Amino acid sequence: MIFAAVFWRRASWPKKCALCLLFVHQCHLRVLTRHRRSVSSLLAPVSCFFDSYRTNAVNMSSHNANARRAMHNTQLRQMAHAELGVILNAIPQPIIIKDEHSRIRLLNDAACALLGKSREDLIGRTDREFLPAAEADRIREMDEQVLRTGEELSFEEDIALADGTVRNLVIQKRLAVSAREGSTDRLIVATISDVTASRRAERELRASEDHYRSLVELHPQVPWIANPSGEVLEVGPRWKEITGIEAADALGTGWVKAMHPDDLECVWRQWTQSIATERPLDAEFRLATAEGYYRWYRNRAAARTADDGTIFLWYGIVENVDDCRRALAALTESEARFKAIADDAPVMIWVTDESGANTYNSRLWLETTGQTAEQAQGFGWADAIHPEDRQGVEAGFHAAFRLRQRSRVEYRLRRADGGCAWVIDVGQPRFASDGRFLGYVGVVLDITERRNAEDERFRAQKQIYHMVRYDALTGLPNRQFLREAFDHLLDPTARAKTVVLRLDLDGLKAVNDAYGRSIGDLLLRRVAERLRKCLKKSDILARLGGDEFVVVRTGMRHDVEATKLAQEIIEAIGTAYDLEGTHADIGVNVGLALFPKDGQSLDQLIKAADIALYQAKASGRGTCKRIEPGMDAHLKARQEMKVSLRHALKNRALELHYQPLINLHTGRITSCEALVRWKHPEKGPVSPAEFIPIAEETGLIGPLGEWILRQACTEAAKWPSQVSVAVNLSPLQFRNRRLASVIRDILSETGLEASRLQLEITESVFLNDSASNLLILQQIRQLGAKIAMDDFGTGYSSLSYLRSFRFDKIKVDRSFIADLPTGRESLAIIRAVAGIGRTLGITTTVEGVETQTQLDAINAEGFDEAQGYLFARPVPASQILEIVQSSRE
User: Fold this and answer.
1) Which CATH architecture describes the domain 645-888?
2) CATH number at 490-631
3) What is the pLDDT of residues 792-837, one digit of tens each?
4) What is the mean pLDDT of residues 615-639?
5) 242-275, pLDDT tens digit by residue?
6) Which residues, in sequence order, are CB contacts of 858 under 8 Å at separation 6+?
7) Do 528 and 577 touch, CB atoms closer than 8 A?
8) Class for the domain spanning 326-460
9) What are the percentages of helix, strand and coil residues in the chain, rounded to 5?
10) Is the distance from CB of 432 to CB of 438 less than 8 angstroms?
């Protein structure tokens, strides 16, 4: 500062002019770096320069009046003017100086560049001469305002430059006095600053802030910010949507008001530890919702530190994990239910993770091997395998595991008592819905007894193959085997013919009714033996079920050979039978169809043979018919049956009979199953097995099922309150999405309590549109009605359905009861079902109980209910009340 003062006193006026303009330049640079400071400070030194220069020029003139001094002053002014121009040009910002008439007196190179014209084109000219009239007039008005008021004028506007670009400029105008000697002219000094970059930065900053705010407001979770001491400074707007509490009320420590009391202490401790240790926070807790209940949330936060490592803010986010928590709880419950079922299963069950290590072994495995659960986990299960078999078992499993394929191995398992058991170990790979491999689940079946009788691998493979493709009763091939073998038999190019014979026994039902099911089964086995003797080794003999058989012979040259074969079969079957002291006499009818004349596929040939068989049966026992045109008249008869059924339903020609179910612990009737009956005016009684499929086919099952339900509820309302009514629902009734509403309306109409209604379904309800059907079942359950699984064990995967829906009752199909107590397979199955029922708390019922020995067998396994001819046959509604009352007595 001292140096600047001395320089000012000693310097000439041109140098003082240059110093002032240099100062102006430095001030202007400061303005550009500090956008918010006024540019007016830049003009002050320029104004001082002109005032000082004029004063000193006058003083010099007054003291030196001679011509030499005047010449000297003129030279000084010229030098100052030249130096002023040099300095102005050195300033990068545009500067324009005008007189009172808006004529440009002086401007620098930057101003010339801004206006896109040379200095010679601009000096002495007004704005009107090179700008549009409207713009020139506007500038003139602002100049006059400065001249009139003497006050600085500053404004900002967008200006298109000569190069076509648009810049954001700050223009400042200030009044100054001419520096010429004796002049009172006033000048207007305009400085122009380019603030385009700073304004762009400001806009970008505002946009960034708006973007951040939008993200916070639209974020599906709740972002939050806290200071270093843990006090919340800001909370996202979704906090109010979740808790019903204003976001402002959550600031500081106000967020604790929404937290579940049981979670607060733990969360507060975690948060305090994070603040003290500067470690991230990760906590789960329950928050009260606006609706008045609690949901699970996860809160994660991390500290933001300065360069010196100190925390200046905590950033966190609260996310909804309620669905994950519920899914985890459901998974835990599902696993517990699975373990309960698996521990009661008659086979050993195991589960692995994706690495192949065992994560679960059922109770039977642990009891058999003597291992603890900890010893069997991982790969410890291999220690229970016989040393001679271990390498082969591990190699087989690892090979299947590597390919993610089904594994199947046989080996000797060391038992806890020191012996060994031969087992079949079958594993199935498990995959998630996204295709991710989860591991294996498998079963181990004890086959020691079978291995002692026959070879290891051959016997097991043969038995599995036999179970899938052969009839268990007669040992004959079944429909599956027939389908697989049929395509290999046919040669469309060959001249030889193939015949399909459809056989139907006449009199089997009478034998079953007269002597019981066991004699009927023996008769079927004897029929199978006689049929084998009639056939060649190349022929195929299959049992399709019940009393229906199929024979396929290839390589015939003449049609007469087919007829001859049919007659041989009729004669062989028609001979009387001696069945362990019981004599039986049955016959057979045969329908013929030839390939390729009567059909090109197995289904077509069987259908054609069925039509011929229908005609043969109409002609009496021991008749053989070949398919001929017009033989499908029975189809017309079926159509007539449809019409008759529709008429019977409309005129209420159907009626319900009821068959009691007995509580095996008390001996009393607990419920009665409603069974529909139809007495045709011409054909007499028609079996439900005949007209129910017709009702399903024609769409009558809906109104028929509704009538049965209403009639059954009406009758049951008259019974004692402890007796329920059971009604069967067809899978097709679930196509009506209002089924639950229909049931609710019927209960309300008849006055029957919902808890006294039991609805029986089969697992086929889950095969098609299972999600919708499951929803309907849940709606029915909400009404209070009971749901029973009927015909259990005869389908595909009944255990999986028990996991999908909580049934109130399981009814074991009658097919598992017929051979009790001698049937080992049936006994094992009903034992497993009884165990499942006990574990899951589900009532277990057995159908088809006809003998005391069967009743003793199911009592021994702990079943809850039984139904069958041993107790009562189905009776009309008028008789059921008397039976119920006698049961109570």
Assistant:
1) Alpha-Beta Barrel (3.20)
2) 3.30.70.270
3) 877 654 566 777 788 899 999 888 888 888 888 888 888 888 988 8
4) 80
5) 888 888 888 998 898 989 999 999 999 999 999 9
6) 664, 817, 820, 830, 846, 849, 866
7) no
8) alpha beta
9) 50, 25, 25
10) yes
> Which runs of consecutive H residues, i.e. helices, occur in 183-321?
196-218, 238-243, 261-277
Q: Considering the entire predicted model, what is its pTM?
A: 0.40
* Contact assessment for residue 633 and residue 625, using Cβ atoms and an 8 Å cutoff: no
- Residue type at 708 in one-letter notation: I
Q: Do domains 2-201 and 219-320 have the same CATH topology?
A: yes
Structure-token match 């749901």, residue found: 787
Question: Among all chains, which residue has been given the structure tokens 């009971």?
Answer: 786
**Is a pLDDT exceeding 90 seen at residue 599?**
no
Q: CA-to-CA distance for 101 and 771, rounded, in angstroms?
A: 90
Domain limits, the chain: 2-201, 219-320, 326-460, 490-631, 645-888
Q: In this structure, which topology does domain 219-320 adopt according to CATH?
A: Beta-Lactamase (3.30.450)
The token duo for 368 is: 């058999």
Quick one: 734 exposed, middle or buried, by C-beta within 10 A (0-12, 13-18, 19+)? buried
pLDDT of residue 589: 95
Q: What is the pLDDT of residues 126-136, one digit of tens each?
A: 888 877 888 88
Stated length of the chain: 889
Mean pLDDT in residue range 882-888: 81
**Domain 2-201: top CATH class:** alpha beta
Q: Which are the contacts of 311, defined by CB distance < 8 A and separation ≥ 6?
A: 228, 278, 303, 304, 305
By CB atoms closer than 10 A (0-12, 13-18, 19+), residue 308 is exposed
Specify the pLDDT at position 339. Answer: 84
Q: For residues 90 and 29, what is the distance between their CA atoms, to the nearest angstrom? A: 12
Position 848, amino acid: G
